[in-house]
What we know:
A six-stranded parallel β-sheet of chain A has the order 5-4-3-6-7-8, with helices on both faces. A two-stranded antiparallel ribbon of chain A has the order 1-2. With about 210 residues, chain A is an alpha/beta fold. Chain A contains ten helices and eight strands.
Amino acid sequence: MDLSNNTIERICKIFGHLDALEKRGVDFVSSKELAGEIGATEYTIRKDISLLGGPGYTRKGYEVKSFKKELGEKFLLTKRRKACIVGLGRLGTALLDYENFQEDGFEIVAGFDCSVNKIERIRTSIDVFAVSRLEEIVEARDIELGIVAVPAESAQEVVDLLTKAGVKGILNFSPVKVNIPTHIVHLDMDFTNALRFIAARFIMKKT
Amino acid sequence: MDLSNNTIERICKIFGHLDALEKRGVDFVSSKELAGEIGATEYTIRKDISLLGGPGYTRKGYEVKSFKKELGEKFLLTKRRKACIVGLGRLGTALLDYENFQEDGFEIVAGFDCSVNKIERIRTSIDVFAVSRLEEIVEARDIELGIVAVPAESAQEVVDLLTKAGVKGILNFSPVKVNIPTHIVHLDMDFTNALRFIAARFIMKKT
DNA sequence: GCGTGTGAATAGTTTCACAGCC
DNA sequence: GGCTGTGAAACTATTCACACGC
Lengths: 207, 207
């Protein structure tokens, strides 16, 4: 299958929203409702779904439970995925305890920091280690995702370590562009750029 | 002017990179180099720049200093913009101290939380207040940006407060879709969705 | 020669329109 | 009647090709 990033992003949002609907006990949802909820049009939603080979007809919309299950299976979103966090500064420790990860199928199974002092001070239920043990632990615990929360100057180094250790995906919170081999899926979350983007749109408004 | 979001996003990244180059004392940069650095093609970069009314000819690329200045002025990225953070849990306090904001032209001038206990405990150089004073402080301090770092269940409420207080942009870290009036520029940073996106691309790989 | 600026061509995405099913 | 699934149309974005300035 070969879906565009936009489509994948929308599918992820749909999945999250189906999850919420399921918890609220809703049985059916229409493309229109989904569209409103995730900020897209009903056409786009239906097209996205049709690319996956849409479920089946009903006159009430999609059946929440089975649709969610289908998406989960197709994208393996149901599989619990193990992740680690590198860099246990304020942001890193905040992420360590971010409950939503655990709820939504991701499991933070290790934290790393280069400061041994910090490692000893941290109080959390998640195991923390020195960065020097990263490769060993990632392999031993089958970690697929690396979350990078170190300062700009060590970001590249950490990414290289994670790459060497064999993670499949990297979520980068450091505010620099790092070189990541193309076989590793990655996404940058740069807060400053996010604010800049908002500020720039103050001026260049386009819907 | 009427630029697409993609273009604006790239311009923001270019701006950030020019800033880094300037600090490193680099004088010129070509579209090709910029492209590599922000993950785009040289064509796209040149097209983006031409939409702004490109600078001038040289055989060495763009002149870092003047180009950065030009972008800053056109997008008002140079103006220091005031922001506040609502929700002083782990993420919120991490953001309070996120040094990069201060460096890059954004100034966090207030923090808000509904727990008075928490407000008293927090040790930071930034003023913190009860959420009940949000409207008053936002107006008094001319705050343009609201950063939402509260749990899902209070996100909508906080967004409504910020809207009423008159902020122009919202950066939403809560993991739910909130309704935000269209005249307010906003951006969602949903960590779980980010991880899902990465996980989904493990399967649906499309460059 | 090197690297930009930009119209034209290509590729990709979204919207529409409508047939089909419950 | 209501809502989906999907080919075709409209739109948007990216890439290319090449003229131009230094």
